[in-house]
Amino acid sequence: MTKKLTKTLSVILMLTITWFAGNAQVNEIWKTELSGSVLWQQVNSYGNYFVCTNTEFAAYNPETGEKLWSNQQFANIANEQIQEMSGSPLLSINQGDAVTLLDPFTGNIKFNSSQAGISELKTKQVLYKANGILIAGKNMSGDPIMIMVDMASGKTVWQIEEKFGRIVTLSELSNEELLIVTLFKNYKLNSKTGEIKWKNSTSKEAEQLESMGAFGSLLQGVAEQAVADEDFIVNFYKHPSKGIFIIGAENKNESQTSSGQTSISYENNYTAFNIADGSRLWSNPVQMRGQLGDFTFYKDGMIVLPNDGNRTKINFFDLQSATGKWGKKGRGIGIKGGIYQHVKTEQGILLISQSGEKNYLNFLDPSQGLMTFEKPVRINGEVIRTVKSPKGILFITTEEINILNYSTGELIFDKSVQTLPGLSVQNGNEIYAFDTKVNLVKLIDISAGTVKNISSAVLKFEGKESPNVLELREKGIFISSEQNVAMIDYSGTLVFQKYYEAPREPGLKRALLYAQAARAAYIGANSYYAAGVLQSAAPDVKEEDALSGAIVEGFGQVYEELGDAASDFAKQSFQQANARFKATAQGRDFIIIFGKIDKDNALFKVNKDTGETEGSINLGEEKDPKYAVDDVTGQVFKKTGDTQITSYKL
I want to staple 566 with a disulfide (CB 3.0 to 4.6 A). Which of 247, 279, 415, 570 is the partner? Predict the structure, then answer.
């Protein structure tokens, strides 16, 4: 055999081995037979794995395939009828007018509205401090009812038939104190017993209605019915050190112009209350034009930062007298756009505002009530993250990155780095970002306030896709989209670029995209925390919600601490969420991509350091394959028979 022929055969053999390695099925970790035909399966954001068949709705251990529990009552139920209850992993199952709350860990029914005698469910909220679920609505006679359900047993702890009316917000003040804000009254309850500690009218007008007896109650009912389908925008602010809370409410006003058109205006008002007895601190609420925007406590008062479109007035109000302190005759000072975010610094407060699609930065000296810039700084996109720098404040928007010098009101970079939030990663004192305008990777030095190109060759993806994720690896900067992967080393050289053809049916990727969105949420939280933003924001978050503030300060640590003192359900919830936070923080060496093997659809495990496939799961030619993905653990669950599920580990 000649030397040339030997070399040719070696190349063919190498290519053959590579093809088989890339298209080989990944390892099967378990297979299980079910009692009925598989209708759908899903992994929720907490990592619980569910399968619905024509005989039962069941949960399985994702690592072993062992059935954890099953419920025949919910066999054949549509996927759309089962949702994660907001603020908890509880499953909310909707069947007509009946709502069932199910524990995903045990399968136990914690609450059923029909069995509880509730004909119309208005409010359902998990109260972790009280270890309960608060339910409010109407009974079978149409009268108001409120129930506290024990989180552990599912039994009713207490029941009240008080006419609460429309509940707009709830807040746990302590382990035994619950604040309920309604349209016309505020209540403080003992959440363990249901005892009403106090109840007071939210305003003078509500007080007058109450004094009118039965007729006033009738008017209240008419008012509530008139706004039954409207969403109320109400914010709750608890003072970090004083025994007071403030309710901010937005009012929408409509009027007819002379030409017959409808004119809409907004007004926001703030009312302060004593936590001890519910009494109002001021005879009249603080009123300002515009929609609810931002808010912060400052010294012995509060700074109200509304959103009144193009021209907004902000003001500082004394907590004792409710009098305005800034601007001419205390009427406030003007700012460009409506405010949606603020960042406190030692020098003052950065205000971020919006008018239409235009966004602005301005700087407030709260000690003097003055805007320090001659004119606001125009930026592109909404600010989603800020990082403090010796040069000012680095900001990342939905479109760009730059650094604001808050002493001069100037931007440090002559040209902003045009990018997306998912295409920027902070590593210590540096931020790597993919500039979508020039298709180059750039390096930003936070302390020095400099930016430079890392790559020199333009990176363009196939299939009309644009990059949407950037990740730092030991070997280089990994950049990807749904069907494209690439790596650029830290010297700027392109290491590899690969494209995987997408299936023609976009619905085929639905389960994978759902899983990737859940993983992205965890990664986003980790990234946000790593930037130091959450830690610096903790005091402000605590003003609005103590639990969120604790999570902000301690991040994953808080889940362990709360879990130690919580019920079994809460402990499992916190521990499972914490484990998934940690898993996404550690990163992994592959990405899951939907592609094709000949005519079949497939899920590919693609190595981030090489761009090559390390295995695949063939999903066949079905237009609606019954599969589910846990993109946090890299596990795939595939229907391999009418009554069979097989799980693979990528």
Answer: 570
Chain-centre distance of CA 282, in angstroms? 35
536 within a domain of the structure (yes/no): yes
pTM: 0.80
Q: Give the H or E element holding residue 80.
A: none
Tokens at 648, concatenated:
């693979």
For residue 647, list its beta bridge partners. Answer: 30, 637
Q: Which residues contact 216 (CB under 8 A, 6 or more apart)?
A: 208, 209, 210
552 alpha carbon, distance to own chain's centre: 13
Please choose, from the candidates 461, 545, 577, the residue with its C-alpha nearest in 3D space to the C-alpha of residue 245: 545
Smallest Cα–Cα separation from 481: which of 503, 497, 504?
A: 497
Give residue 577's domain range.
3-31+522-649
Each residue's pLDDT tens digit, 450-508: 999 999 899 999 998 999 899 999 999 999 998 999 999 999 999 999 999 877 776 67
Residue 438 contacts residue 458 (beta carbons within 8 Å)? yes
Whether residue 189 is found in the same domain as residue 87? yes
β 98-102/349-355 pair status: unpaired
Predicted pLDDT at 527: 58
Stretches in the chain below the pLDDT threshold 70: 1-25, 203-232, 506-507, 519, 521-567, 585-586
Residue 147 lies in a domain: yes
Cα gap 333→288, rounded to integer Å: 12
Looking up tokens 């109260």 gives 127
**CA dist., res. 585 & res. 378, Å (int):** 34
Angle (CA) 337-340-345 rounded to 5° is 105
State the pLDDT at residue 522.
65
SS3 of 391, please? coil
What 317-321 contacts at long range (C-beta under 8 Å, 24+ apart), as own/partner pairs, is 317/270, 317/286, 319/242, 319/244, 319/272, 319/281, 320/281, 321/282
Q: What is the CATH number of the domain that holds 108?
A: 2.40.10.480
Sequence-distant (≥ 6) Cβ neighbours of residue 632 within 8 angstroms: 47, 518, 519, 522, 580, 583, 584
Residue 378: Cβ within 10 Å count: 12
Say if residue 605 is in the same domain as residue 541: yes
